[in-house]
Amino acid sequence: MMYLIATLLCLSSFTAFALAKTPHYKAVFGTRPDQTLSQRYLITAWIMLLLTLGLNISQAVGYGSLMFCGQMALAVLLLGVMLALRPRWVRSLFYLLPATTLLATVLFTL
Question: Taking the chain, what is the end-to-end CA distance rounded to the nearest angstrom?
Answer without folding.
Answer: 12
